[in-house]
Amino acid sequence: MGIDRVRWGIVATGNISTQFTHDLGLLPDDAVATAVASRSQDSADRFAAEFGIPNAYDDYRKLIDSGDVDVIYIGTPHPQHYAIARTALQAGIAVLCEKPVTLTAKQARDLVAVAAEHKTLFAEAMWMRTNPVIQAVFKDLAAGVIGEPQQVVADFAFHKPSLPSRLLDPALGGGSLMDGGIYPMTFAYMALGRPAEVKAVGSLNEDGVDLNVAMAWRYDSGAVAALTCGLRSQNPWVASISGPEGSLQLPHRFHHPEYYVRTTASGAERIDVPTHGRGYHYEAGAVMEALRAGALEVPALPHAATLEILDLLDETRSQIGVRYPGDDDDLSG
Ligand SMILES: NC(=O)c1ccc[n+]([C@@H]2O[C@H](COP(=O)([O-])OP(=O)(O)OC[C@H]3O[C@@H](n4cnc5c(N)ncnc54)[C@H](OP(=O)(O)O)[C@@H]3O)[C@@H](O)[C@H]2O)c1
């Protein structure tokens, strides 16, 4: 494709956009944030000043139309992802969109189709997949270090005295499942693939927002996964994959760890893998590599996984009774 510098546009100026843009600065000079857009000019200007970004817009659409960028990073709440990503893909601008990319699998399938139609790269920012420690764990698994995996256990639950309001707002896709549960689900999916059977229970608040969810997955191979997420408890926030020969364990905040523990017949060994920054530059680097190769998909962030995880999220939400705007939308036209 012949791109020397990849010009990034940052859509939204909240928490995760700030972390992502900070990490973008850890990449070599060939990654440059050239524009930012916010719903307010003040926020866009403040963000632009903080990161030395030359162009700041008060409207996401203006950034997409500007010609200033090769790829946009979308850091809005989940319900806003779909329309912004669709507009950018239709304009031929590559998209790295926060997880979950959409509220429903139907919306995500539509985005993958639009990306293919416009020959434009599209990826979900499931940054866990590009973390070097996670990659080392799955290399061990593939090498048969613990034998055929039989059990995956993973939890993603935390509690803060004051949670960000979007997490409890149904109109903003609130709930533990979409924000946190997607990580243990993706972890189990990476280890075992798509389950044959899914059972879920959840406790919702009076607004229909899930506060505690437990999932059990069964595979035809005989393997199982036990996964939880929540917004009301300080969990260990750990994950493990176990087989007949041992286990691979990830510590607190398992989705962006600094080490893992490999336990086999020869004992338990802590494996440190060098990482730096918060870890968002790994996914940005993977996107840039794919863009330069002229690819429409980032190998580490595959469309198939995005879609199948959203199928599983749809199924889990249906079992526990969480509904979002868009659940009944007909996108066929
Ligand atoms: N990868 C990760 O580690 C990670 C971590 C946290 C969150 N996330 C994901 O990132 C997304 C955003 O999360 P966040 O924690 O960054 O949220 P946040 O701090 O609330 O920021 C979201 C930003 O989106 C924009 N926005 C657009 N429409 C909005 C609306 N109707 N209400 C509120 N804000 C709106 C706002 O930016 P402007 O005012 O500038 O337009 C806002 O600052 C979510 O999809 C979440 O799942 C990912």
CATH fold-level label of the largest domain: Dihydrodipicolinate Reductase, domain 2
How many domain units?
Answer: 2
Instruction: Name the bound molecules.
Output: NADP nicotinamide-adenine-dinucleotide phosphate
Kindly state the number of beta strands.
14
Query: How are the strands of the largest sheet arranged?
Result: 8-9-10-7-11-12-13-14
Number of discrete helical segments: 9
Detail the poorly predicted runs. none
Order of helices and strands: EHEHEHEHEHEHEHEEEEEEEHH
Q: CATH superfamily name of the largest domain?
A: Dihydrodipicolinate Reductase, domain 2
Helix content: 25-40%
* Separation of the first and last Cα atoms: 33 Å
Instruction: Sketch the major β-sheet.
Output: 8 strands, mixed
The overall pLDDT average reads 96
